[in-house]
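Tokens as discussed.
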């Protein structure tokens, strides 16, 4: 998660423009529809498996949580399709590409984790599922960036989706771990940090206060990766409090300190 504000300064753009023509935009919308259809198929498959393994009620409640998250991700993708470009002035690319496809699979895994928010802590083999799903999302987070950089297909859309899906994962997974008693309740500050940051920027804009550009700091991705690793471990039935409490608290403090440092930077008196 390299930036907290990947989309707040960008004006939403449609996928049609005279420069692009209709063909790339139409292909891109069809790609979006195909991705949504694939997500729905995966959702139905997951719900059916849970219904058979446990009960129809379990499958239904899982579908509610997973479906709501998947719907939010699909809406986010649809809104950002106009950024499927390698640069702000570049042409609209007609396909999402392999890197964005991996990012969408990551979003699907996070949606699967969200499905467990409305269920009691699972037992038996099913107890491994939330942790494995989120762990898969974390691994794909490392992979999709490398895939994008390989063929030179790094897009503005990919950058936005990367930040947004990281944030959704760090919202959903810690809430689930806290609900299961695996992480302390104060760790939810990690889930709230980005949204508090964005809300603060929004209020400053509304008041006409200056905002400086967010400086590039590679440590952000490192700290975010540490949070993801800690949460993945907490969701697996291998460790519990007080070990997970100590790990989570130690990981949380530098993460929040970085947010405070970035807030100080963007609200500096030197802001333009």
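Sequence:
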């Amino acid at each position: 998660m390299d930036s907290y504000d990947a989309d707040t300064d960008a004006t939403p753009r449609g996928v049609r423009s005279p420069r692009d023509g209709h063909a790339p935009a139409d292909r891109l919308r069809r790609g979006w529809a195909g991705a949504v259809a694939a997500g729905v198929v995966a959702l139905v498959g997951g719900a059916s498996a849970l219904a058979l393994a446990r009960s129809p009620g379990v499958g239904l409640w899982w579908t509610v949580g997973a479906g709501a998250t998947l719907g939010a991700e699909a809406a986010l993708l649809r809104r950002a399709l106009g950024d499927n470009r390698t640069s702000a002035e570049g042409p609209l690319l007609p396909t999402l590409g392999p890197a964005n496809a991996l990012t969408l699979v990551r979003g699907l895994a996070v949606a699967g984790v969200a499905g467990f928010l409305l269920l009691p802590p699972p037992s038996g083999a099913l107890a491994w599922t939330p942790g494995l799903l989120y762990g898969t999302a974390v691994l794909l987070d490392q992979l999709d960036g490398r895939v994008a950089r390989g063929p030179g297909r790094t897009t503005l859309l990919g950058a936005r989706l990367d930040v947004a899906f990281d944030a959704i994962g760090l919202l959903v997974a810690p809430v689930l771990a806290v609900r299961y008693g695996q992480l302390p309740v104060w760790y939810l500050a990690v889930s709230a940090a980005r949204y508090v940051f964005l809300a603060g920027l929004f209020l400053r804009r509304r008041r006409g206060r200056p905002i400086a550009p967010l400086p590039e700091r590679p440590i952000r991705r490192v700290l975010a990766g540490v949070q993801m690793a800690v949460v993945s471990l907490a969701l697996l039935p291998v460790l519990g409090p007080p070990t997970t409490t100590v790990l989570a608290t130690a990981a949380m403090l530098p993460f929040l300190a970085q947010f405070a440092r970035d807030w100080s930077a963007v609200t500096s008196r030197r802001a333009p």
